[in-house]
Amino acid sequence: MNSEVQYRYLFGPVPSRRLGLSLGVDLNPAKVCTENCVFCQVGRTTALTLERNEWVPTADVLAEFDRWAAAGHQADVVTLSGSGEPTMHARFGDVLRHVKAAGRFKTAILSNGTLMFLPEVRRDAAEADVVKVTLSAWDEESFRKIHRPAEGATFARLLEGERALRAEFRGQLWVEVMLLPGYNDAPEQVRAIAELAKSLRPDAVHLNTTTRPALAGVEVPRLPEAWLRTVAPWFAPAAEIPVFAGRAKTPEATTDAEWLDLLARHPIALDALATACGADVPALERRLAPLVAAGQLAVEEHHGVRMVRVAGA
Q1: H or E, element range at 224
Q2: 84 φ, ψ to 5°?
Q3: Are strands 20-25 and 10-16 parallel, antiparallel or unpaired?
Q4: Tens of pLDDT along 139-150?
Q5: Does domain 10-252 have CATH number 3.20.20.70?
Q6: 228: which of 61, 67, 103, 110 is 20 to 30 A away, CA to CA?
Q7: In which region does residue 185 sit, left (phi positive, over 0), alpha (psi from -120 to 50) or beta (all else)?
Q8: pTM attached to this predicted model
Q9: Segment 195-253, tens digit of pLDDT
Q10: In the chain, where are the structural domains located?
Q11: 270 in helix, strand or coil?
């Protein structure tokens, strides 16, 4: 099968734990971001900055989306995410408006929240149906330890921006809390985060721990699901523990190029991917075996969970 990458800025659709079947739009080169989080699945940030720029050509992104949509592909939502913080792209609002004009898709942004203190970022973010922001710290020290942000990014600014977004945004505001052993999982720490999250008046809180290999140079184990379920009621609304949803194409109907596009930015648990594809794990592994043998994909165990990702990512 042809393994040539079809899209440079689109990936998926991905079976998402929050959004169903999500077409990803990547507006950042790898790896340009405002943070260098210890738990990042993409890898170390090589350009750590708060600079907003047209990091990738907007016209090319829109052309790819139009080509994808014209081919009759389907997704539950089109999501700005990928190799870095999407609000760093100076024209991310134009991308959202273009997708909405197609009239077929809901839109979402997965943001770390660091640039929401800027009015122009909040204005463009408000074009989305769903904005997900991150809140995994409770003070400046914990923020710096977990997220390792660019100079100029502070916890006070993060909270200021996320609270301002809530005051202005009429769509769905989701808060993601990433709990990590030894960083922010002690009861008093989780309660402190929960109190701050409550001040954002979110429509939903999603409680996560590491589910994919962290590639930022720090080994971060995952927390037991039992602990996540214990602390979930401490949030308001009670935190959800997302599970994979959405239906992807069958393994045989997915081309080599599509597998590589998907897994380059989004390592996935084999069992979750098999469920999304409507297949069993052995059938999925048989389909991926030629790409593994060619050294293009790797299957590895991550804290007891077998994951598949692009080799060398």
Answers
A1: none
A2: -175, -170
A3: antiparallel
A4: 999 999 999 999
A5: yes
A6: 110
A7: alpha
A8: 0.79
A9: 999 999 999 999 998 866 555 566 777 888 899 999 999 999 999 987 655 556 677 77
A10: 10-252
A11: helix
